[in-house]
Structures are given as C-alpha cells and as structure tokens.
C-alpha cells in the first residue's frame, strides 16, 4: 500500500490522487508555501514538493526582476521600458 508523501499514512485506492509520480490523499496535495489545495497536473514542482504555479512557484523559483503577469496567469519577464510604460499609462 503506497504512503502519502505529505502525511506518510497509507493511501487507499478510493481516496487516492496521483501527482508527481506519487499517490496522495486529496486534502494532502497542497502548495508547500500558501497551503492552497492543488489539482493533479495543474501545479508546479520543486525538489519533489508541490507548489501553485502562480504566485508561489514563480515568486520562489522563477527569474528575479521586473515581471508582467499575463491574462492567462503566466508570468513573463519584460524590459524596464515596457514595465514603466504600463505603469505610466495606468
């Protein structure tokens, strides 16, 4: 019987969600930073631990500097001029 990587208790088939190549209890699959409940396949991973894509993973492990958040939730680096233009026109 597999053990949940978060609580280390046995995971029964009826309560199992699979993510990161492991079986979890649904309530145990949470972001390591903000504790938000995650859905299998819709989150990021760092050193075997789950993180929500935005903002936690991006803030902790993404490139540092000025960023622009797009409508689809992705975070893209942008040049200083574009960043300043966006804030000047707002």
Give a written overview of the molecule.
The chain contains 2 helices and 6 strands, in the order ββββαββα. Mean pLDDT is 79; it is low at 78-90. The strands form 3 sheets. A two-stranded antiparallel sheet has the order 1-2. Strands 3-4 form a two-stranded antiparallel sheet. It has helices at residues 53-61, 80-89, and strands at 16-19, 22-25, 44-46, 49-51, 67-69, 75-77. A hairpin with a 2-residue loop joins strand 3 and strand 4. The chain is 21% helix and 22% strand. By secondary structure, it is α+β, with helices and mostly antiparallel strands. The chain is elongated. It has one domain: Cysteine Rich Protein (Ribbon).
How many discrete structural domains?
1
Q: SS-based structural class? A: alpha+beta
The average pLDDT score comes to 79
Q: What is the CATH C level class, in words?
A: Mainly Beta
Number of strands: 6
- Specify the helix fraction band: 10-25%
SS summary, helix count? 2
Radius of gyration: 17 Å
Strand order of the largest sheet: 1-2
What is the molecular shape? elongated
CATH architecture: Ribbon
> Could you please say which CATH topology applies here?
Cysteine Rich Protein
Query: Which homologous superfamily in CATH is the superfamily?
Result: Cysteine Rich Protein
For the terminal residues, how far apart are their CA atoms? 56 Å
Strand coverage percent: 15-25%
GO molecular function, one term: zinc ion binding
Keywords: LIM domain, Metal-binding, Repeat, Zinc
Domain LIM zinc-binding: 2-63
Organism: Cyprinus carpio
């Amino acid at each position: 019987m597999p053990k949940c990587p978060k609580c280390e208790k046995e995971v029964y088939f009826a309560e199992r969600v699979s993510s990161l190549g492991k079986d979890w209890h649904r309530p145990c699959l949470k972001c390591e930073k903000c504790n938000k409940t995650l859905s299998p396949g819709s989150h990021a991973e760092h050193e075997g631990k789950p993180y929500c894509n935005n903002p936690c993973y991006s803030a902790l492990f993404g490139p540092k500097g000025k960023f622009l958040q797009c409508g689809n939730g992705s975070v893209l680096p942008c040049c200083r001029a574009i960043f300043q233009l966006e804030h000047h026109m707002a």
